[in-house]
Amino acid sequence: MTIDNLTSPTQVKSWCIENGFHPNRTLGQNFLIDRNALEAIVTGAGIEAGMRVLEIGPGLGVLTQALLERGASVVAVEKDARLAGRLHQALGSPAALQVLEADALDLDWPEFLAGGYDACVSNLPYSVGTRILLDLALQADAPAVTVVLVQREVAERFAALAGGSARGLAGVWLQLDYSVRMVRHVGAACFWPRPEVGSTIVRLDQCRSALTAVERESFFALTRYAFTHRRKQIGGSLRKAGGRLARSEEQLAALLNGAGIDPKMRAEQISNEGWQALARAYGDSGRKRPC
Ligand code: SAM
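# S-adenosylmethionine complex -> structure
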């Protein structure tokens, strides 16, 4: 049986039953069965003919087909061997489609992205979606536009600003190089099997930070350390840091002051501008100076 309409729950369920395919929870196999949400993703990504698009987790191909219909060429990375094997056959093997059976967590991203992509458009698997997105988005050659469907609370973390309860490392890191916007919520009923929670379409537009390589290293080291000790005040927590973050008490006070950060603040209260200012100050103060 072929699936004529990939947004038809009846057809999707019938295909699974006929083929003895049981959607795998661990792989986040909740297939999108809602045409409006599908339209919102493809339109939200601004897909046009000739664009080269990366898709992680094509599943049964509902998004892949929509991207191909808009004239994009698609490289789709799918971990599940049965789904990867089915895709070419189901979508008629167009020249514009390349299916790679692989775990996106194991990709050699710099090599993989060397071909150049205009956009990444994906309905990401729940359990590993944040890891995959961070692995991709922080690469030097990451696409300029990324549109992903993720769990609602994950989307809120990506977009959270300083002071909000959802503020965490993923949002701070993504907002270093992207403006992050929640495009539209997608209810749990728009997927089969129905997940326990709703999802949200998120769009990331690249606006690379001006930090130098050394300052970027400081940014990641500082934020990773501070969010590991997120209940502590930043002044107290950084006083105990070692390695590249080790500074005397006086130096630390001057660095925080110079970056406009109150030592009593906690990690989630610090804005991205504050983190970048602190990373610049650390990057600079950590460098060896000629005598
Ligand atoms: N794109 C399809 C859709 O919208 O209906 C399927 C999306 S489903 C939420 C996630 C897909 O990611 C599944 O097809 C699953 O097999 C695949 N997947 C899960 N983990 C993966 C990984 N580590 N690497 C690549 N694909 C993965």
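# post-check
The two ends are 76 Å apart (CA to CA).
Strands lie at 31-32, 52-56, 73-78, 97-101, 119-123, 145-151, 178-186, 191-192, 199-206.
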